[in-house]
Amino acid sequence: MIWERGDWRWLKGLRPLYGVPLALLIVLPWFIAILLASRGAFYEQSLGEDFAAKLAGGQESHGGWPGYYLLLAMLTFWPAILFVAPGLGAAIRRSDVPATRFLLAWAGACWLLVEIVPTKLPHYVLPAYPPLAMLAATWLLSPREENGARWQPVLFWLAAVQFVVGAAVLAAAPVLLPRLYGSGAAWWLVALAVAGAVIALAALAAHVRRMPLAAAACSALAVLVLYPTITVGAAPRLDELWVSPRAAAMIARNAHPGDPPPVLAGYTEPSLVFLLGTDTRLTDGTGAAEVGAYQGGLALIADKERPAFLAHLAEIEADAVAVDQLSGFNYSRGRKVHLTLYRVTASQDETVPPAE
Questions:
Q1: Is residue 150 within 8 Å of 102, Cβ to Cβ?
Q2: Do residues 162 and 82 touch, judged by C-beta distance below 8 A?
Q3: What pLDDT, on a 0 to 100 scale, did the predictor assign at position 105?
Q4: How far is the first Cα of the chain from the last one, in angstroms, to the nearest whole number?
Q5: CB count, 10 Å around CB of 173?
Q6: Mean pLDDT confidence for 175-193
Q7: How far apart are CA 216 and CA 86, in angstroms?
Q8: In angstroms, rounded to a whole number, what is the distance separating the alpha carbons of residues 35 and 144?
Q9: Ordered DSSP codes for 153-196
Q10: How far is 159 from 91, CA to CA, in rounded Å?
Q11: Residue 173 and residue 241: Cα distance in Å, rounded?
Q12: CA dist 126 to 7, 79, 233, 341, Å?
């Protein structure tokens, strides 16, 4: 609208008189249901605490400087990153075309918004990727202009550099990550990584020789090698990253028939609650001691909550025995984690259930 000097008449094409009521019909039942089920607590926490915190600063170790997504795009938009910068340059030259202007506004507005927000996660920028993909495809399939802008060659080589960096990281990932967070890389992972890197180099060579369709074909083939190598081959071997499944398995190994739901303190990732069930108690170290003393059973305590847990157990004269432990890396928060599993003996003095 700003680009069109305030002309908003094109919005009529979206049929708002039909679209807005239809959207409300789809979402309002869920909004009302969660409001009633949580007595308003869901909106208080999600909007008043979680969303507001993301706008105010980098939440949960997910802060980042402006330019974060520009660097990350070398991985998250690979291999199409090879065509994005030239596509943007060509689109700017054709900004008099309404469709091109719309795609530029779409991508630019989304990208600017997520770069401004202090909290940054890789998927926040995804709404800007469809228009960028369309602009890249348009450049890829268009005839080359003989008298392009002077900065077009700069964008061409910039895209080549971005592609090489992304290819190098993706090829190294299945080799290095299992060594850092697992038991090591198998020989076949190394072989597949090398094969993917060679195909990526073929794509780069085709790009340099001004053969865009050949570059696109080789890029697609490289994806078919590297992505499964990382996701299917290497990822399951990264034992230290899968803290929640390992913690759930550890609790299952040490559970006794008739145990109450486990108590978590310090490590309360939604993935673990999903694996253990919605009856799982989430609290801090002091609360875990109170719940354990009242109901007994298992308590999974992170190191940062362990002093408070043990101190409060001593205060209320309750007993707990460490039965298992594990170490890993909490990638959602970007730090190492160590968890100790305790079996707490219910105290006969604790007859009043602790507050929720």
A1: no
A2: yes
A3: 93
A4: 50
A5: 19
A6: 90
A7: 14
A8: 56
A9: HHHHHHHHHHHHHHHHHHHHHHHHHHHHHSS---HHHHHHHHHH
A10: 15
A11: 14
A12: 27, 15, 25, 38
Structure tokens at 354: 């602790």
Contact in structure between 217 and 80 (CB atoms under 8 Å)? no
* DSSP state letters, 222-266: HHHHHHHIIIIIIGGG-GGG-HHHHHHHHHHHH--TTPPPPEEES
The vertex-121 CA angle with 118 and 125, nearest 5°, equals 90
pLDDT tens per residue across span 269-311: 889 999 999 889 989 999 999 998 888 899 999 999 999 999 9
Span of 77-81, 117-121, 173-177, 178-182 with lowest mean pLDDT = 117-121
- At 51, the pLDDT band (50, 70, 90 cuts) reads low
Instruction: Look up the pTM and report it.
Output: 0.76
Nearest to 296 by CA among 258, 343, 245, 250: 343
Query: Predicted confidence band at 145 (pLDDT cuts at 50, 70, 90)?
Result: low
